[in-house]
Amino acid sequence: MLTGVTVSHQGRIFVNFPKWGDEVAFTVAEIRDGRPVAYPNEEINRPNPDNLAQTLVSVQSVVVDSRDRLWILDTGSPMFQPTQYGGPKLVCVDLTSDRVIKTILFPQNVALPTTYLNDIRLQWTATGTFRIENGKIAQFIKDWNKLSMWEQFGWPIEECLTQKG
Predict the structure, then answer these.
(1) How far apart are CA 55 and CA 47, in angstroms?
(2) More confident position, 163 or 50
(3) Per the confidence metrics, is the pTM higher than 0.85?
(4) Sheet bearing 69-74, strands edge to edge
């Protein structure tokens, strides 16, 4: 079942299909010629139980930001099952190169095994602050904003503001 739609500044359309029981060939797609095509590629859309951090498990939300990058919220929870580390994550794809440029894994004390990540809202401020509004996740990010969240995740603020590929 399709649950998310977002449109890039160039008019590209992206959708997502969480794995809730119906057959899902890929969890993120771009609409091309009226048909969904695995995005950014088929390989990343094939979950690898030995390396969940590098693949998409069950995506609930896709959002294009003001810098024309696609952010993918992966619940890591197919069929609402408990998650494992590497499953719940936020993935950023540069729409110019169609490459993943950043993956933010949520720590297990933030995205608990029974947590279901549902939605994201992106807000860039003059200082490059990023917020996720979703219960406990929002509190986690809010606490980290006392410093630079990007530095905490190992992504310098300058790179956050300028990176395009």
Answers:
(1) 5
(2) 50
(3) no
(4) 59-64, 69-74, 89-94, 99-105
DSSP, residue by residue, the chain: ---EEEE-TT--EEEE---SSS--S-SEEEEETTEEEESS-TGGGS--TT-GGGS---EEEEEE-TTSEEEEEE---GGGPPP-TTSSEEEEEETTTTEEEEEEEPPTTTS-TT-----------TT------STHHHHHHHHHTTS-HHHHTT--HHHHHH---
Average pLDDT, the chain: 79
Both tokens of 2, joined, read 């399709």
* Overall residue count recorded for the chain in this entry: 165
74: tokens are 């992966």
- Type of residue found at 57: V
pLDDT band at residue 66 under the 50/70/90 scheme: confident
Residue in the block written with tokens 């969480």: 18
Q: How far, CA to CA in Å, does 16 sit from each of 67, 158, 163, 164?
A: 20, 30, 24, 23
What whole-number distance in Å separates Cα of residue 16 and Cα of residue 132? 19
